[in-house]
Predict the structure.
Amino acid sequence: MANLSLKERMAIPRQAMPEQEAGIRASNFLEVPLGFSDMVASTEASRCLECKDPKCVQGCPVNINIPGFLKEVAEGNFAKAAEVIRETNFLPAICGRVCPQDQQCEFVCVVGKQGEAISIGSLERFVSDYERTNGLRKIPDIAPSTGKRVAVVGAGPAGLTAAYELARRGHAITIYEAFHRAGGVLVYGIPRFRLPLEIIDEDIGFLKKMGVEFVYNTIIGKSIALDELLGAEFGYDAVFVGTGAGLPKMLGIKGENLNGIYSANEYLTRIYLMGADNFPNHATPLVQGQRVAIIGAGNTAMDAARTAKRLGSEVTVYYRRSQEEAPARREELHHAMQEGIAFKFLANPIEFVGNDDHFVIAISCEAMSLSEPDSSGRKRPLRTGHFFTDPVDTVIFSLGCDVNPLIADSTPDLRVDETGVVYADPKTCQTSKEGVFAGGDITTGGAKVITAMGQAKVAAAAIHDYVMRER
């Protein structure tokens, strides 16, 4: 494969990953994509043109050497390919499954300018799965102990990445997590048919082998203040805050407090962290009707919609713009449509109707049209004055999240903006508070897993410099 000419490489079509058939997978929670075979992976990787200026690397928030690992895959050196990826990415099995490659590395792939981009994400998944199933993953070289201690707040992708990078540098790391298990949004925000739990747990177990300690059921900002972590009682030399953005956005319209209306955060957390889909075997109940409305069309909206479908409901997605403007990955939209989920685009909810028992029974919407693109490049939804009402008995909001104010409210000298987003220097991730660094959604108001990881890597380097500096 490696000796193919440029013309021969360009002639190879993008290889399709096999998947569960839509009619079968819509009633189970098993992973949808089934993975590449060795031969198919090598064929797909051989499409890489080995560009001298690889835009794909620049498009990756953690700067994976993409041409380097693709070259190894094309030559059948899968173990070596894993080593190349691990030089910069602690969570490749996760990133290969949930990152929006179509908006990042694959979006700028040169091959995609004249055809279909290389399936970088699927190949990253293939390589990391090969490494795991063959027991090839090794503890990285760890620097001698520095004697420095760093607290990491939040066990989501940012916190896990920061812990890994800091542990490698020889620091003693403790992760504080509000829930009873680690993973953050990877566990409670992403369904198992997209990201199996064993993938996450392997990475958590790997951190434990590196000496990282986990403290669960501890809410920083309530159980323990940031000042206490840095004070004499706990004695940490620095703190990294990666608590994400978990305060759901709502529309502020009539009826949104009715029973049967959830945020996607609550809905997915109840199911994937609390087992609500298996009540009464698990103690957390979940009331879900036969007609579910999803408000929004991002990745989390698709996760909620596809989950509701698997629990036996008819599901309709309502989105005030068109399909072209939907922020979800193209693959997620495609999978949802394959699985029988209905979409009502150009539909803006204006009211939810309840019955005498205060349960939602209907959604009222205004039909919208779209303007020409404005200065932001997006088409604005415009009112038409035409309305319709649909019967529903469950509604799930998925309109993004704001930052939970708990840490900021309990830390007066921590600078935040008017929406509660924590200020952090983009070059160092240092906050306004001495010794406190932050990264991920708490500093952006909501972004992507890989973006949070990229910020955590920046923060870890800055924290290392900070704690090793003589003061």
Summary: The mean pLDDT is 93.
